[in-house]
Amino acid sequence: MNKYQQILHDLDNNSFTWLITGVSGFIGSNILETLLLLNQKVVGLDNFSTGYESNLDQVKASVSVKQWNKFEFIKGDIRNKDDCGNACIGVDHVLHQAALGSVPRSIEDPISTNSSNIDGFLNILLSAKNHKVKSFSYAASSSTYGDNTELPKKEEKIGKPLSPYAVSKYVNELYADVFANNFNFKSIGLRYFNVFGKRQDPNGAYAAVIPKWISSMLKGEEVFINGDGSTSRDFSYVDNVVQANILSAFLGMELNSENKKKDIPSLVFNVAVGERTSLSELYVYLRDSLAESYPHLKGVEPTYRDFRSGDVMHSQADISKARNLLGYQPSHSVKDGLKEAMKWYIKNLK
Q: Which tops the pLDDT comparison, 119 or 288?
């Protein structure tokens, strides 16, 4: 039994109160589902700016009535200090997922990105500290590596940010360090690498590539690849991210315990698989998987266009630090995750 399996076993017999910000979003709703299935009490905070009530409805359908009744939803905004303070009352673990994502959106509207991702982060961090929660974990981002071209990406080596979104996520890490140094309140940042899975939004200009491509293929629409297709990413199935969040809560609780030395810093971990998949490889795999049920997709080629401003060419994580200190062991490879998620994609995206 690995560390995560042990924690899941322990959680089944011990109840905590968890706060998930951005609970109606893609990642937040997947964490919610896992915690409710473990009979945990969960408070969710969201303003539905990028999340959906339908995501919560799907979670409700997947758990028992008794488990669903352990969920309290607060419609609120992390940019509002009072909403953050109210949400933190009586909470043991904070899993902060709320943010305004997307590199292109941040370039078009840096003010909104700053407001949600920096002001909002500071509000929830301060509220968690003031309410003496046991742990605070937050969604960091691989965009923090910026123009550093070294592969695989190691947590200690970052470059200059390439977008306002990357700046905002790096500032989160700086604030986490400041709170550890000044208030002895430790946080754990999880640098996500290209997460995918059920309940991921395929719509809009800022949709993630996997659901957007699948949706386009199912509808017979043109699929666009930015660049020549050699751009690569470390795609990670959402269950890996859920695992990292739950593991981080227990490490964070240890870091914030009374017997820990004050010089222990906040920590940051890569959350990925540690592999690279090019966009062309990804396209072929998605197309061929769908072609088994949709023969019209056989041999259909994508359309290549200019590389997108603010993006990086290649991204791959070194996950050794997360393995060693967090106990993280990704449960799904890219193909395993896509195979598991494909039924949901087909049912919900066509």
A: 119
